[in-house]
Amino acid sequence: MTTQTDKKQMRSAARLYAVQALFQMEVSGQTVETIQREFETHRFGEIFDGVEMAEGDSKHFRAVVDGAVNWQAKIDQMTDRALVAKWPIDRIDPVLRALFRAAGAEMVDMDTPPKVVINEFVDVAKAFFPEGKESKFVNAVLDHMAREAKPQAF
Known about the structure:
Order of helices and strands: HHEEHHHHH
CATH superfamily: NusB-like
Strand order of the largest sheet: 1-2
Strand content: under 5%
Number of domains: 1
CATH topology: N-utilizing Substance Protein B Homolog, Chain A
Shape: globular
């Protein structure tokens, strides 16, 4: 039986996988369908350096990736407005770009409370950049995006 904690962990894993999938789509040019199939078949629960990766929530993973693709123009515009004028979205790290698109999909296209989205994706940023200041940067950008996407939540 899947507990509430298991479901939460699976959604968290799905967010991390969604960022990886969006990054891979951008660098490889593969289709959303190809990437989603690869992740669900090979990445979820994969053994990596002797560590078993978490099982992801497929439904949440697909919703985030599809939302990021379908709403990319709107999400990128929101991200651009949240970034400093000198740093348009196409100049930032591609992993961060994928992260902002995944988080933006949850803000624009899903019912996840904005504070949950921010906390979850700040954790994803820490996973990708354990030594850096990126998590503070991600927190600031996502806070700005959330206030634009769902002002009623603040």
